[in-house]
Amino acid sequence: MTRLVGLLALALVLTGCSTDPLADQYRAGSNKGFIAGDGSVTEIAAADRGAAVAWSGVDETGAAVSNTDYAGKVLVVNFWYASCAPCRVEAPALQKLNAEFSGRGAEWLGVNVRDQAANAIAFNQSYGITYPSIMDVDGGAMQLAFSGSIPPNAVPTTLVLDKSGRVAARILGALSTPSILETIVRDAIAEVPAA
After folding, report:
1. Domain 37-190's class?
2. Where in the cell is it found (predicted)?
3. Interval 51-77 mean pLDDT
4. Global pTM?
């Protein structure tokens, strides 16, 4: 009995040492349907970015889309789905930045991780989204393509790819300060592409 009490006490102590916010969200059991990011921004120096990420998929209209379609451009990739509350909150800011950078060296692409095309189209109409989204619900190929050194671990997550197709930055969670993404995109546009 004493040994059982000791093991239980040790387990409680070890559990108390855990400060993983993602694990805490899971344990909370809120049934919100997603693990929220903390809004942290990770920028990767050009020399540390590694290889370009190769990816492809089909957007909500059925059109094929791949990394080659964005060669030489900065690409903002936003992982989202329609019933994700933070995704709905950040949608207007993403669309505003998309419009601001249209024709200026940066493009936007969504990656819908849960919905069917009809839901994505309805979301786009509701929020005025004009950029396409790859439908990634069936195979998760886009999530897998970016699962390397700086994966999209939460929804929403926004990645900025440089002109060479390498991940230059990640915003893990909702875009709370659009000016941060705007600055990252401007800096990426100003960079000289990797040889």
Report:
1. alpha beta
2. Cell envelope
3. 97
4. 0.81
